[in-house]
Amino acid sequence: MLKQLLGLAPKPNQAVVEILYRQIVAAARQPVAYDTWSVPDTPLGRFEMLSLHVFLLMHRARREGAPLSELVQDLTDEFFRDVDHSLRELGIGDLGIAKRVKKLARMFYGRAGAYGEAIEAGDRAALSAALARNIRPDTTDWQGAVPLADYVMAAHEALQRQDSESLLRGEIAFPPAEGRPAGA
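^ thats the sequence. predicted structure below, dont judge the formating
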């Protein structure tokens, strides 16, 4: 009882959240995104890909009630704990962590809004533009945006076909990242 009051007790969804998060990390680290589509293999590039995959599950659960929405909230919390941990590993001190995590959270939710609107409209061009604007703001002609947008739409469709019970058991299936190389 005391552990629950202090927030030290394990959360009921923790085991499933850990399973889902490992799968999200694996999907976000598919080599084709970095090697073929030129997503920067940097801390920020990896954040973008993790954000994208967390968003996809969050978007899938948006119209579901509890318990899936609660699970996705716990998963989002886990994502930001991982972001916090990663910032600390990069050497950012306690005083700078909160500010940076807040900034990254604003970035995440801004991206979620833009990606969600494009997906709901079935607008691959808008999705591609949003991905390019967020993932490769350093270039005006990122060729990886189109195949990444195709992947995101395929992942969205695959997640829509997955039943909630499977997700609640920690079973999630992202499609393999395939596609034409950047610049092709």
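The mean pLDDT is 91.
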